[in-house]
Amino acid sequence: MVPHNSPRIYVLDTNVLMHDPTSIFRFAEHNIFLPMVVLEELDNGKKGMSEVARNVRQVSRFLDELMACASKEEISNGLPLPCVKNTEDEEQQCGHLFFQTEQLQNSLPDSLPGMTPDNNILSTALALQDLYKDSQVIMVSKDINLRIKAAVIGLQAEDYQNDQALDDLTLLYKGETELSEDFWETHSKNMESWREDGHTFYRVEGPNTREWYPNQFLYTEDDAAFEAMVVSMDGDDAMIELVDDYRTTKRSVWGINARNREQNFALNLLMNPEIDFVSLLGTAGTGKTLLALAAGLTQVLDHNVYKEIVMSRVTVPVGEDIGFLPGTEEEKMTPWMGALMDNLEVLTQTEGGEWGRAATDDLLRSRIRIHSLNFMRGRTFLNKYIILDEAQNLTPKQMKTLITRAGPGTKIVCLGNVAQIDTPYLTETSSGLTYVVDRFKNWDHSGHITLQRGERSRLADFASQTL
After folding, report:
1. Quick check: pTM over 0.85?
2. What is the 3-state secondary structure (H, E, C) of the chain?
3. Domain ranges, residue 153
4. Do 143 and 223 lie in a common domain?
5. Domain boundary residue among 130, 158, 186?
6. Stronger pLDDT, 155 or 457, i.e. the higher one
7. Mind listing the pLDDT tens digit for each residue in 45-94?
8. 300: CATH
9. Does some domain include residue 189?
10. Radius of gyration of the chain (CA)
11. Share of the chain above pLDDT 90, in %
12. Residues 296-309: what's their mean pLDDT?
């Protein structure tokens, strides 16, 4: 069993392993305890082709590697986990993985009758707490109700934190920053400006430039309404470029104009061929899908930058098969693509009556492909404009799988609202969309903007504020 001098003992719930197969390696030098009921639940969840089933099978492979050639005595004494070294001066500290090898005394209170899997895990954790009084026993679970039950009976319980990209969603990169009122006074020394290929550039020097990120937008709220984008940085020096104004009719994108500052920033990212990855966050009605689709149609049909548009979204329930009923992959995905169809109606308002509209629809549908995420693994997309809708429902691992499908000349646009997550065990801070926004902010070929204002209609805008 666990040594009595162990400072911390983490009892893992099954859903932690299902959520992150590598979680057993994420607790640094601390010891991990797996109740027998967890192994039984893993065995029940290994069948199928869902993401959860794949994770369960990966956990089993990790456990099998750790137990290779281990004797019963070695298993009882704990299987060594990879060691960690916090600093150069400290010695490496190694945690151990322990399995429940004997029946522990049931110490559940009368308020929790029966031996459901959750109560079994609670009983095991309470028994360990009584058995190892010098150690801190902590139960780790993604199940909020189980953590509440643990707190009620006096057991310390925590959420699994390692999968969270940020501690607080308010720390998430917004993609824009307002310049201070004295910015030009403190950064105008040695400033240069020039025009090149119809664009205006500035080279500024000052302390604030160290806080900027590539392709971040800068603006002022004064009458001058300065709006620019960071092009490059070198220490205290930074080169910025004035953005194009897509709010004017001269710069409409497939008949669409930006209605506010953030939408204008979004179109600058979407229309820039040097930016390979764009993420747009925003609540319903901020125009994410409409802007992405309009920019895609312009670059596919007018500018021939990309061959076609590939659009996909997460089907609910996430990761499940789209079915074996008659029909192609696109026909089965059609019920999930209501946002695409609604926005196409806005973008295909032609003057030619029914015949003209039908011809336009046929042209657009020939250049727009709808794919299910279930069949993305192993594919490579060349010169495609990929729109990934409802990306907040993807895990970081799923997001990595999808983004790595991009071949040369492909642009990926991720859309989502982290306040509307339907996937079990995903939160605003652990969503794959939050993960990529945070990880891509330092890359020269990516851009992000959070859309603030709803532009769907005055009714929708009023409802979002008051209801």
Report:
1. no
2. CCCCCCCEEEEECHHHHHHCHHHHHCCCCCEEEECHHHHHHHHHCCCCCCHHHHHHHHHHHHHHHHCCCCCHHHHHHCEECCCECCCCCCCCECCEEEECCCCCCCCCCCCCCCCCHHHHHHHHHHHHHHHCCCCEEEEECCCHHHHHHHHHCCCEEECCCCCCCCCCHHHCCCCEEECCCCHHHHHCCCCEEEEECCEEEEEEECHHHHHCCCCCEEECCCCCCCEEEEEEEECCEEEEEECCCCCCHHHCECCECCCCHHHHHHHHHHCCCCCCEEEEECCCCCCHHHHHHHHHHHHHHHCCCCCEEEEEECCCCCCCCCCCCCCCHHHHHHHHCHHHHHHHHHHCCCCCHHHHHHHHHHHHHHCEEECCHHHCCCCCECCEEEEEECHHHCCHHHHHHHHCCECCCCEEEEEECCCCCCCCCCCCCCCHHHHHHHHHCCCCCEEEEECCCCCCCHHHHHHHHHC
3. 8-158
4. no
5. 158
6. 155
7. 998 877 888 899 999 999 999 988 888 888 888 898 887 555 454 556 67
8. 3.40.50.300
9. yes
10. 27
11. 44
12. 92
Report the CATH number that the domain containing residue 236 is assigned in CATH.
Answer: 2.40.30
- For residue 3, being part of any structural domain is answered with no
Q: Copy the structure tokens of residue 127.
A: 């028994």
Give me the number of domains the chain comprises: 3
Domain end residue (candidates: 128, 158, 188): 158
